[in-house]
Structure formats: structure tokens, C-alpha cells
Amino acid sequence: MRWPDGFVCPNCGNRQSWTLRRGRYKCRSCRGETTITAGSLFQDTRKPLRLWLQALWHVTNSKSGTSALGLQRALGLGSYTTAWLWLHKMRRAMVRPGRDRLSGRVEVDETFVGGEIHGLRGRSGVGKRLVAIAVQVKGQGIGRIRMNCVPEASKASLHGFIQQAIEPGSTVHTDGWDSYKGLSTLGYRHEISALKGRGPAAATELLPRVHLVASLLKRWLLGTHQGAVSPEHLDYYLDEFTFRFNRRSSASRGLLFYRLVQQALNVEAVAGSSIFGGKKPPRPQ
Questions:
Q1: Which DSSP symbol is given to 11?
Q2: Distance separating alpha carbons of residues 58 and 63, to the nearest angstrom
Q3: Where are the domains of the chain?
Q4: Cβ contacts of residue 262 below 8 Å, gap of 6+?
Q5: DSSP letter at 280?
Q6: Strands 141-150 and 33-35
Q7: What is the value of pTM for the model shown?
Q8: d(CA 52, CA 41)
Q9: Architecture of 105-229 per CATH?
Q10: From edge to edge, which strands make up the β-sheet containing 24-27?
Q11: Residue 171: beta bridge partners?
Q12: What is the pLDDT of residues 54-105, one digit of tens each?
């Protein structure tokens, strides 16, 4: 997968090399040294590559995903922190760079994700993260989805998400929130379903697909991860949920595994320290 036509130097593009010890290659042109895992998800790993592939297979073969504790037990890893770190690295490979935007008719809404805070309603989600969700309409069902954390329910945040997730010319169906106004000037056909005065069940009835996806997301976070998702890492859990949901009808787990390995080779290496963000490693849940 990495070099289908043979060695390629990442520095100068030369195709001739010497093979050194411990799986290293030395370019015959620029004399630079590299490995087949350099610049990928697997860079600088101290574990055997076979174990990484077993981890990737376990993740893709688990229909609803797996927790770090589950991965640790399945692979026999001595450290929970290693399993947690590996899962976060794999989530970074679940979003393909340059992926196609949604098109056609798309429902868009936002929801707060986080612990329950009594006394707060509507869009005042203190202590939670706001997640924007776009769901492609496919007949009576659901097509692909996109979701991202947004800082606030402002016009700049929501318009930015829509431009990133949805192809211009598509029909965007939203509620009557003021921040969605102006989508027509960005090249979208805007369909509005005002919810004011319709009762608490109106949102689910008028935007059924996006509310179903929001409900499934929260159920997945609570069921698979027991709700133990820190706000700073929520975006990567959203990436995993999107990866799984958009491939929910795939009959071949082997193909999912193959695609994830491909994407893992194209993801820039990320150090564990940057994932932990200077904090202590998490404890098992």
C-alpha cells in the first residue's frame, strides 16, 4: 500500500535505495534514511506492526466500536493508556482528506453533547459542546452524514460548517434559527421549518433524520464509552461515529479494514504528548 511500485524517497522522490538494519531504507540519491511507516499513523511505534493491524481489525470488526478497556483486553496490552492512545490515533485516520461534501437535500441542526445540566434549555448549553449535524436525505431514509463541534450557534459558525460539509446548489433544510438566514447568498436553496408555537415534538417531526442521528450519537457515546468523553477530544469521537455510520450498510468488514489501513498510511504522524495535551493519561472507565 505504501509503495505499490517500489521504494520512493520522501525527500527527493528517488526510487533506488539500500536496505539497512531494522527495516530502514537509505536513499541512493540524497542519502536520507526512512522507514515504511515514517510519516504515517504508525511512525515511531515500539509495538510490532502486526499488533497494530490486529488493533485495526478489532476496531473495524466491532460493529458499534470498542472502548480502550475493551481493546486492551482483546489485544492483551499491558497498559490501558496505550490502548486509549491507539484508539485516538486511529480516529484521526477515519476522516479521509478531501472527502466529498454532501449534496441533494440535506437536513441541518445542532445539539449539545455532554452531561445533563438541570435548569438549562434550548441553546444555552453551559458545560457542554455544541455539535452541528448535517444529514443527507435519501428517499425515506438517511444517506451520509457530517458532524463537527462548533464554538457557538452563530451565523459564522453554522455557515462555516455548512460550507465545509455541503456542496453549493444543494437544498439545506433547517429550523427557523436566525443564524441560518443568508444561506441563499452562499449558493444554497434554503428550506425553513419554523418550530415556534408547534410544541416540543415539532422538531423531531419536521427534521426527523437529523434528530435521529443526534439521538444515535448520544446513545453510542453513552453505551460504548459510558459517556466518558472529554470535551477536548469529542471531535475525534464524532469522526469515528461518522466513519461507522456512513459505512453501516457495508457487508465486507475486510474492505473497511483495508480502507482504514490505507487512510492510516496517509495520516500525518501525531505524538502522544499532543493528544494528551500535557494532561495525565486517563484512567480506565
A1: T
A2: 10
A3: 1-36, 49-96+251-276, 105-229
A4: 1
A5: P
A6: unpaired
A7: 0.84
A8: 10
A9: 2-Layer Sandwich (3.30)
A10: 17-19, 24-27, 33-35
A11: 105, 189
A12: 999 999 988 888 888 999 999 999 889 999 999 999 998 998 777 899 999 9
